[in-house]
Amino acid sequence: MRYALLCALLMPLGYAADVCNPATFPGAYGSILSGNTTISGDSLPSASVARLVFDSSGKVSGTTSANFSGYFLGNPVSGDYTVKDDCSLDWRLQDEYGGFQHFAGKLSLDGKRVAFSQTDPGGPQHGVMIRSSESCLSSDFRGRYRIAFNGFIVDLDTGYPTGRISMSGILEADGNTGLRFTSDRASSQIKEASYQLEGDCVVHMQFPLDGQTLNFRAVIVNDGKEILGIQSDLTAVVTIRIKAEEGSSAPVSEKSLASGVK
Q: Which first-to-last residue range defines the signal peptide (predicted)?
């Protein structure tokens, strides 16, 4: 009898469903989404970054930028969303040309982070969305961070990858416009870099390398503790994740990264 009673008391704890409060979800968010997509036929790498504002009436608006097959495109978007108390979130975005994209994910219990994918057939599957501030200052990007670059160099004619990118290190931001990168490799060629705040917590980062400049579009999230972005140069389908310093990541391929700039 006592054993049966104990099991009855413990079962709700072991099998309790996630519960979220939809009223706490509305606000500004930054996201990145990457992975292969077959939406246009062949399986090709893609990466996108967005800053979206979800209002309290079920509407969403913002901007998205995507690098698909090595071509960089940016569009204002608008749409609608549904969030439920089981932490599920669905939304759709319409671009200025009338096309729709559909997404689905699950909120963290604090409502500040969403793991998601694009649900259109063949859409990329690896997405993260994190709460951002309504507005940001250059000083919000300040301190010592871990940075990781991951992705591909692709052929513009075919869209197929021609090289893999994997680079990581320490990034120090001065809270003004200055960045300093220290690669996990001893022979780093990228050192001094810069950033400019473009508004709405979107930043443009520039990393000089071998007489070229590597450009990235990113969003400040999590009160400046994280930055999510993608490379905006032709032929580079590369994401960046920047987090207040923790641990270490896989090392570098700087020459390959530079080959993504034309």
A: 1-16
